Amino acid sequence: MQKQWRIAAIKSSEVIGVKYMQEWEEKVIEKRKAREEGLEEGRAEGRSEGAEYKIFSLIRKKMAKGCNPEEIADILEEDLSYVQEVYKFLESQMDRSEEASWDSWRENKTGEK
């Protein structure tokens, strides 16, 4: 009985209520900040992958038109070694769809790290 009375007294205490609300608000703010940070990281990763996909796609299109790695690097103003790496990979992928080739490329790159 005395325990219940103490709990009721604590719950009705204005000082404890204010502290509880402050802690609760801090937790809500922390969650919001963490969510925003996660969203921003996701956006940055998406932009980066999108840019890489665009270059991959352009290299593939230039290959289909008969361009060699040096020409492609010059046209796209990209690093020759990177273009050669993608070119070599795509040589065995031209019979597959662009999306399937991209998925394989990403799997290979993820597996290397």
Task: Summarize the structure in words.
With 113 residues, the protein is mostly helical. The chain is 86% helix and 0% strand. It is built from 5 helices and no strands. The chain has helices spanning 2-12, 14-64, 69-76, 80-91, 98-112. Helix 2 crosses helix 3. It is rod-shaped, with a radius of gyration of 28 Å. The mean pLDDT is 89.
Question: What is this structure, in a nutshell?
Answer:
It is built from five helices and no strands. The chain has helices spanning 2-12, 14-64, 69-76, 80-91, 98-112.
Query: What spatial form do the alpha-carbon principal axes imply?
Result: rod-shaped
Structural class: mainly alpha
- Give start-end ranges of low-pLDDT stretches: none
Average residue-wise pLDDT:
89
Order of helices and strands: HHHHH
CA-to-CA gap between the ends? 63 Å
Please tally the helical runs, counting DSSP H or I stretches of 4 or more residues. 5
Q: Share of helix among residues?
A: over 70%
Q: Could you give the count of β-strands?
A: 0
Described by strand count, sense and barrel closure, the largest sheet is:
none
Return Rg in Å.
28 Å
Tell me the fraction of residues in β-strands, as a range.
Answer: under 5%
